[in-house]
């Protein structure tokens, strides 16, 4: 079922600083910031040869990463995103296995324009997992 | 400078349970557990098409992930590992940029038999970063 690691998302308090860390210190190819108001974040994409890192800064009062940054003021890894071929089949399999899918289980359209679901960290080794239909 | 994402390391309190989550729930290809006494962990490798996830369980009293699991009893993402072509050049560049390299800055031989260094989370968006010479 599990496909590629689509991305690792790192929440940062200061996107300009995060960009500098990845561009100047680590020497990676880093995109311009992209506001995603529907998802409450501004994103910078760090392109690696085999996957990408997404640096996320809160955007708006209801940003889903605001509480995380209050607990982790220096930033931190917020979630990992795995690709699946069929997100509804993945959801049904996970629910049958007893895992908790966040929300009402209906995939939403994610920041890449594809259906996504989030899985409960308590059921996945303490890790917030996003599934994205590839 | 930054090459492939070599792995994402997830610390888990119970490797058998973590293996079941990735094998049965998520349907991934998962290795047998491998004890790494020199590194204080037992590791299971989750093979994805483009990278791998390493599930780490503490091994021995001085395991470097024991304190992390005390703070995060359900487990959590412990570090990310990026490949670099020349670890000494990477270290010298990072130190010149003002970043903190953990330990005395001398690469150690990591669990894959290659030279590795760890970088201070405070200087890298709150994320513990391992560099491995590819």
Automatic annotation (TrEMBL), chains A, B:
InterPro entries: Glyas_Bleomycin-R_OHBP_Dase, MeMalonyl-CoA_epimerase, MMCE/EMCE_epimerase, VOC_core
Swiss-Prot/TrEMBL GO biological process terms: L-methylmalonyl-CoA metabolic process
Swiss-Prot/TrEMBL keywords: Cobalt, Isomerase, Metal-binding
Molecular-function annotations in GO: metal ion binding; methylmalonyl-CoA epimerase activity
Keyword Isomerase set for record: yes
Record EC number: 5.1.99.1
Coiled-coil residues: none
Pfam families: Glyoxalase_4
Catalytic activity: (R)-methylmalonyl-CoA = (S)-methylmalonyl-CoA
Domain VOC: 4-134
Family: Belongs to the methylmalonyl-CoA epimerase family.
Entries under PANTHER family matching the protein: METHYLMALONYL-COA EPIMERASE (PTHR43048), METHYLMALONYL-COA EPIMERASE, MITOCHONDRIAL (PTHR43048:SF3)
NCBIfam families: metmalonyl_epim
Protein name: methylmalonyl-CoA epimerase
Provenance organism: Aestuariivirga litoralis
Gene encoding the protein: mce
């Amino acid at each position: 079922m599990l496909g590629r690691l689509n991305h690792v998302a790192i929440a940062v308090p200061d996107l300009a600083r995060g960009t500098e860390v990845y561009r100047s210190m680590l020497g990676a190819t880093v995109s311009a910031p992209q506001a995603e108001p529907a998802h409450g974040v501004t994103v910078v994409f760090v392109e690696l040869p085999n996957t990408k890192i997404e640096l996320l800064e809160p955007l708006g009062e209801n940003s889903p990463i605001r509480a995380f940054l209050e607990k982790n003021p220096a930033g931190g890894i917020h979630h990992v995103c795995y690709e699946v071929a069929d997100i509804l089949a993945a959801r049904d399999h996970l629910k049958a296995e007893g895992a908790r899918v966040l929300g009402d289980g209906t995939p939403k359209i994610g920041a890449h324009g594809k259906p996504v679901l989030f899985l409960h960290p308590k059921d996945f080794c303490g890790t917030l997992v996003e599934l994205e239909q590839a």
